[in-house]
Structures are given as C-alpha cells and as structure tokens.
Design a protein that fits this description.
The complex is a heterodimer. By secondary structure, chain A is mostly beta strands. Chain A is built from 1 helix and 9 strands; from the N terminus they run H-E-E-E-E-E-E-E-E-E. In chain B, helix 3 packs across helix 13. The longest helix of chain B is centred in the middle third of the chain and has 16 residues. The chains are: A mainly beta, B alpha/beta.
C-alpha cells in the first residue's frame, strides 16, 4: 500500500526530446528533419502542427518532410536570458523554401551570424528540463562554405 | 470600436514609476483615487463599473485594489489581462461601457508591481506553453531581431538606435513621474551592458512598478461633475495579432498598422493631425519602427524623421513627450493606462517643465501586448484623444 502511494507521489520524469510530432531523427543515421502538416482539404502547409487547419478548419493532415536548409532572416545574441538559461545563446528566424518561418536556437558562436546567412538543420540541447537533463530539439547552424 | 455615443475623460491619475516597496494594489488604489478626485468625485457611489489591467500579480487584482474604498459591492469590477496591453485595454473596456450606454461613468486602471515578484537578472518571456519560449525566446531578443533586420536593410547603426533613448530621457528631464531621466550620451547608451545584440541595457525599458487610471463618462456626467477640461475620446481600438507561420516583414508590424488604420478611420483624424504620441517604446528599435507603422512618416523614413527632429519638442509630432517607457520603465499592466493619463495632462496644459508648446489638441496612445509565436504581438490597443473645451 505505502509503496503504491510513494509511486503515485514520484513525479513523472520531464521530457528530454522536443517534440516527436515535429522533429524526426532517423535511427539509421540519416539527417534529422522537421515535419510539416499539409491540410488534406485545402493544401495549406503549416509548421508547427496546428490544432486544425487555420485556413479551412480541416482536421486531416498529410505529413510532409520540410527542407533541411533555409535562410536566416534575422538573429540575435542573448546576454540576459530566460531564468535558468546559460548565457550567451543565439536564436533566430529561419525562412524555409516552403514559405514557412521557424524560430530556433542557433548552434555556433555569438557574433558569428548575420541576416541572410544560409543555414541547415541540426539537433542539440535547447535547455535543461526539470530533472536537470538536457532537452534535445531542432537547431540550425551555418552551412560550411 | 464604433462609439455609439460620445465619451469624455473626466480625470486621470498616475503614480511615480520606478521600484516600489508597496504592491500593485496600493499603487492601483493611489492612481484610481487620484483619477476620481481629479474628476471631482468625492464619494464611493459615483463610478458605475471598473476595469483593472494587470499582467503578472495574481488573481482578483481589481477587487484587491478597490476593497476598502467603499466601492466593492456597488459596482462590477472586471479584471483585464493582455500582458503589456492590459492597462490600455482596461481603459478601452471602461469607454465601451459608457459608449454603449451600459454606464454613464466608468473607471479604467492599470497597475503592476514587478520588483516584488520577479527574479532579477532575467528577461521577460511569454508562457512556457509557447513553442518559441520553449526554445528560450525572450522579449528583448524578439525586438533585437527586429533591430538587426532593420539595420541590415537600412544601414541604421546602434548609435542611431541610441539616439531614441537620448531623446526620450531628455523629454523626461522635468517629469516627476518618470524614473530614468535627464542627460545621457549616445556613447553611454551604446556602451551600457549588452542585453540582446544590438540592444544594450539603456535601450531597454526598465522593469518597473507603477499605476495609471482614467475616469470616462458621458458629456452630461462631465458637466454634472463640473469637469473644466473634458477630453473627448475620438477613437479606441483593440486588435488581436494575426496568426501565421509564414515569413513576415518584422521591420513593420502588421497588428500596429491595422490598428492605426482603424483608429484613423474611426476617429476621422489622420496621422498629420496628431500633435503628441505615447507609443510602445519598450526598446529603442520599437519607436523607430512605429514612426513608420503609425504613418507619422513614410516606410523607410523613420531614421530621417528622428534625425530631422520631427519627433521631439518643436517637431511635427512629439513622440514620447512624457519620456516614454524608456524613461518610465514598463510595469506591463500599468503602462497603457499611464500613457493615457500622461497625454490628458499634456492636452490640459498641466505639464510644467515638459509642456509641449503650443499646447497640443490631439494625442494618440499605442500599446502592444504579449509575445506569442505566429504573431508579431498578441494584442494592440490604441486611443485617440482630443481637447473638448
């Protein structure tokens, strides 16, 4: 009985991966990619996954792998960040060829990015979770010239 | 909104802005009492509804503000939250009650205490349920990205951005309610601590505490109260931010542009007729962009507008005559109401030491609110105010 109670009290472990519906990391070592959601009734493509298609309220989606490369529309180096975040860190808006804009952290040194840089998807830690473990998510880095 | 009957501001109140050791309710109460006394209201049974804007301080904030003024039990008190737009939205809601005939006199309050509730050395972030927040977004950074893109496209420099702080602090020099004020050099602004490149500490609004309050009523009620200088509400607009995950031009601001267009149309007053503006200068870049978004100048001419002195005393339209958020700091639930209070004082010629000359006849206020992925801002609230005597 008391064991059961203790099991109930123990908090569920926090997530270490963000987010299986959005980011696919193939087990065979192929490069990771983001999943877009194309509305089956109107064709509207969105990322992240919407509650329903905000264009036509369609509820069925075709999952589409999104381009792994894009253009860094804008970027900033953060020196005073969210509570608990180690600084500095870098984030930006990445425009994908599918006419989608993604907000993401950048992998690379502060001061090394500028608007219109060509960037590619990678994965890495974006923050630590409640248990002190890193959470993995999509990030972008410069494409080596 | 379409104003179904004329609405006037009878009186306003505001506290000093800065760090306060008393909580939001004490600040809100002080501003509300000042606004009521400024409207010649000397008893608890006059105001017929009250709206209280607050961002972060908890629940039943409005009832807590009014609890021992003898007003609770006599009127509905409704609490309003939309991050930085909350105070403006509270006043909007009070105006709506009077415009629709629900009441003849109502009160809008904005109040906030951050310093008692927020961890120092951290930056504001939207809710953790937001996908951008999960990826460590902070509001300073979102504005910094606007700045970097604007600089990339126009060749604007950090020194140019710093000139906004220099201007607004100069405006605030003799304003008793402003927090940071007086002379500061471009170099001091640029060389202050980096927060989110290119925004340095002195380009960011302070995390402050304060409150503002506005009493609105019918023309008949203003006359009955003996209000000498009623200010007419020529327009009031609230908008929610359009949502999409497509590329958008962040050197503009879709929600501000839509909101301003609606305000100009509904009030019949164009940007060329506006004498003073208090806008959402939470960061230097914001004021620069909003010159363009509000139509004070053409798209791309923001920097020229600043350099030509068009946005300061003696210019075409004095922007941030009270010193703006860059001088007041920005208690998020309070600012929208405090902007309106400050504009009413300018229209009434009560700003000794920082009075715009000639005394302005038309004032406009603008506050956006909230970071939300897929939008530029979650909310925007604007008001157009005109002397009516």
């Amino acid at each position: 009985m008391s064991d059961n109670k203790e099991a109930k009290k123990a908090p569920k472990p926090d997530i270490t991966f963000f987010h299986p519906d959005l980011l696919i990391v193939p087990e065979n070592g192929d490069p990771p990619y983001l999943q877009g959601y194309r509305c089956k009734s109107c064709g509207n493509l969105d990322f992240p996954k919407p509650t329903l298609c905000w264009n036509c309220w369609g509820e069925e989606f075709e999952i589409v792998p999104l381009s792994r490369t894009g253009v860094l529309y804008s970027v900033t180096d953060i020196f005073i960040g969210q509570a608990g975040m180690k600084t500095p860190y870098v984030f930006g808006y990445i425009d994908l060829p599918e006419n989608l804009r993604v907000f993401a952290q950048m992998e690379g040194e502060p001061g090394s990015f500028k608007c219109d840089d060509k960037v590619e998807l990678t994965i890495g830690p974006i923050r630590t979770n409640r248990d002190g473990l890193p959470i993995t998510s999509y990030k972008f880095r410069k494409i080596a010239v | 909104m379409k104003l179904m009957r004329d609405v006037y501001i009878a009186g306003v109140g505001e506290t000093k802005f800065g760090k306060h050791s008393v909580d939001y309710d004490v600040l809100g109460r002080a501003a509300a009492l000042e606004a009521m006394r400024n409207s010649n209201i000397n008893r608890p049974d006059v105001v017929q509804s009250a709206y209280v804007g607050n961002g972060m301080n908890g629940i039943v904030t409005g009832q807590t503000v009014f609890k021992d003024l003898g007003m609770c039990g006599r009127l509905p008190i409704i609490n309003v939250e939309s991050a930085c737009s909350a105070g403006g939205m509270a006043v909007y809601s009070a105006i709506k009650d009077v415009a629709t005939g629900v009441t003849d006199i109502s009160l809008g309050v904005g109040c906030e205490n951050h310093s008692l509730h927020m961890q120092s050395g951290t930056a504001f972030a939207p809710s953790m349920s937001d996908i951008e927040t999960m990826h460590a977004a902070v509001m300073t950074g979102k504005y910094a990205m606007r700045a970097n893109r604007y600089m990339h496209e126009t060749g604007t420099t950090i020194e140019d951005l710093a000139a906004i702080t220099v201007k607004n602090r100069r405006h605030a020099t003799n304003n008793p309610n402003a927090w940071f004020k007086g002379a500061i050099t471009i170099e001091e602004v640029v060389n202050s601590r980096m927060v989110a490149y290119p925004l340095t500490l002195q380009q960011c609004c302070g995390i402050a505490d304060g409150a503002g309050a506005v009493v609105v009523c019918t023309k008949e009620m203003a006359a009955k109260l003996g209000v000498q200088k009623p200010v007419k509400v020529a327009g009031a607009v609230v908008q929610s931010g359009p949502y999409h995950n497509r590329p958008r031009d962040i050197t503009g601001d879709d929600i501000t542009e839509t909101c301003a267009e609606q305000l100009y149309e509904e009030s019949g007053i164009g940007p060329e007729d506006v004498n003073i503006v208090e806008l959402h200068d939470a960061f230097t870049i914001a004021e620069l962009l909003y010159y363009e978004c509000l139509g004070l100048c053409k798209k791309g001419d923001g920097l020229k507008y600043l350099r030509d002195g068009d946005s300061t005393y003696g210019g075409k339209c004095v922007v941030s005559p009270r010193g703006g958020m860059l001088s007041y700091g920005h208690p998020i639930g309070a600012s929208g109401a405090a902007q309106i209070a400050a504009c009413v004082k300018q229209l009434r010629g009560e700003c000794q030491g920082f009075q715009v000359d000639p005394i302005p006849r038309v004032a406009m206020t603008h506050v956006t609110g909230g970071g939300l992925s897929g939008t530029e801002h979650a909310a925007c609230t604007m008001h157009m105010l005109v002397s009516a005597w």
